[in-house]
Amino acid sequence: MLGISKSTVSRALAGRSDIHPETKRKILDLASQLQYEPNTLAINLKQQKTNTIGVIVPETINRFFARAIGGIQKQADMAGMNVMICQSNESYIAEKKNLHSLVSSRVDGIIVSISTETDRSDHFVSLTEKGIPLVFFDRVFEDIVASQVVTNNYEIAMEGTEHLIKQGCKRIAFVTGPEHLFNSRSRLSGYLDALRKHNVQVKDSYIVHSHYRSDKVEEYTRYLLNLPQRPDAIFAINDYAALEMIHIMKKSGLRIPQDVAVLGFNNENLCRFVEPSLSSIDHPAHDIGASAAEILINHIRHQDLKPEKRVIKSNLIIRESTEVK
Amino acid sequence: MLGISKSTVSRALAGRSDIHPETKRKILDLASQLQYEPNTLAINLKQQKTNTIGVIVPETINRFFARAIGGIQKQADMAGMNVMICQSNESYIAEKKNLHSLVSSRVDGIIVSISTETDRSDHFVSLTEKGIPLVFFDRVFEDIVASQVVTNNYEIAMEGTEHLIKQGCKRIAFVTGPEHLFNSRSRLSGYLDALRKHNVQVKDSYIVHSHYRSDKVEEYTRYLLNLPQRPDAIFAINDYAALEMIHIMKKSGLRIPQDVAVLGFNNENLCRFVEPSLSSIDHPAHDIGASAAEILINHIRHQDLKPEKRVIKSNLIIRESTEVK
DNA sequence: TTGAAAGCGCTAACAG
DNA sequence: CTGTTAGCGCTTTCAA
């Protein structure tokens, strides 16, 4: 329309300096008048990169992951990158599909927190071969050679358990994720070592492997309550589960924390507002996500970096639900 | 590597029938051996479509939107389409940016729930001109010519308010979103009409326009409690806000629901587990999202369809927090 | 049943 | 400062 070649137009739109101001103005004016939108597909195809970070999480409805994504987005925004989010819905198959989809979309790097079903890492090794940077967070593989961001699961589980022991609890139930997940195992070790350290008897029946599914809470709560030796403390898998457990126990006439102390996980806002207020583990989701993104972006920009492992500290937050005395 | 032209390879990979089975097998074998991943960018560029639905929501950390996205994803999966999620973070500027980004990415259609800041619709009209299908949900524009999915905000606000009146409440506070949002206004009208219908005095001081920000709850709660005529009921903006309000009021020595009845919004799981259990409005987020996606996909497939408006019914769920008697 | 060639919208040498 | 040209990886006529 202006009788100008497309290279010049391209230069104007890209904001280059090697162009006559007048020409540039004319192009920009017409572009905005025509409501021109550059075709990202074509740009990305040409550039062989997409400026996009792919993310695979189990479920965005889970607030931990929602907050982690917030942290990822923030870092991505700062770096001028986009984020593409996929949910595995805790399914190994879906996770694999997501991965293919992200690779096909040619994202520049991928951040993953694996599904509960995922018990092997083969689908991720090909990424490394293809040179696509990869960072795991929270739910990671123990052995794989890749960057990862985790919290001090072992230590915090130990600290939480010791706190319960100090409150005088002797029969401490522990609800955690599936055994094959590394962070579940770390937490379990922390719990077990705390018991052993303080000479508290370990009982397998007090250990519940949940699948992070909210529809199972009632079932395992009843199981715990019906044990011949009912627990006098529960270390829950997350705050929502803790809340539901407390509700069920109260209905059974149990007092919290006098009869059963309850320790949550994640330190959601609601912890402060429920009754009794809920002790919990502050799990810095936003920071974890941000760290993962930071590492990934670094690896995208400098292909030769070594995998990095970062540990973010969780904190025990004590409230009424574990104040037995 | 096979001495076969790329057209033939393309045919094999696309699963066409006009190809020799033997050739096809060889191609597919080699492809999987090489871990070949088709370049979605190139395919989309060529096809002039991306099989992708763009979504703009205020915040995915908000459970309503997280669940709505779940509904969108489900429909998209069924239709073999992808979903690209953007967050406006309740900012008008970010919303505009998201929109440009989605258009540049050449998504086939867009689903939007507008930010609290958004008080005009100019940035959306160009979409219609470009022939990009557009569906709004929950937070919609009243006047724009586009498909939309909403709930019966007016009726449900009326029903909730009438329920409180029937409990004997006379000074009913109402917390809602910003005035320029259509659904806030609808709810407010429902509330006002319910009061008038039952000859309950309308007091402006009982109406709070919040911005869906959790950090303002304490402030407006104190404001309401310090009114010369303290409210005896509160219709809250969502369940989390309701929970926090209840917490603050309990600390002030008020009994719920005897002194102040509280009605939440969204019917989160936690409503059943808190004390007193929380009455709420069941707001079918998943269905709303699914409907929006269904309409959008229809419009993508049949460009000539007229805009469709769909209303999904919310339901009043009565629990202890409003059972005054 | 297969191949050659054009083109999707853009960028980036290179030449002028 | 601007235009020409080639090419990113794919699909799709058209011809053989």
What would you note in describing this structure?
The structure is a homodimer of 325-residue chains. Chain A folds into 3 domains: 6-38, no CATH class; 48-151 and 285-314, Response regulator (Rossmann fold, 3-Layer(aba) Sandwich); 153-282 and 317-322, Rossmann fold. Chain A is elongated, with a radius of gyration of 25 Å. The first copy, chain A, has a 6-stranded parallel sheet, with helices on both faces. A 4-stranded parallel sheet of chain A has the order 7-6-8-9, with helices on both faces. A two-stranded antiparallel sheet of chain A has the order 10-12. Chain A is α/β, with parallel strands linked by helices. Chain A contains 11 helices and 12 strands. The A-B interface holds A 35, 37-42, 44-45, 50, 60-61, 63, 66-67, 69-70, 73, 82, 84-85, 87, 100-101, 103-106, 126, 129-130, 214, 240, 243-244, 246-247, 250, 269-270, 272-275 and B 35, 37-42, 44-45, 50, 60-61, 63, 66-67, 69-70, 73, 82, 84-85, 87, 100-101, 103-106, 126, 129-130, 214, 240, 243-244, 246-247, 250, 269-270, 272-275.
Short description:
Chain A is α/β, with parallel strands linked by helices. Chain A has three domains: 6-38, no CATH class; 48-151 and 285-314, 3-Layer(aba) Sandwich (Rossmann fold), CATH 3.40.50; 153-282 and 317-322, Response regulator (Rossmann fold, 3-Layer(aba) Sandwich), CATH 3.40.50.2300.
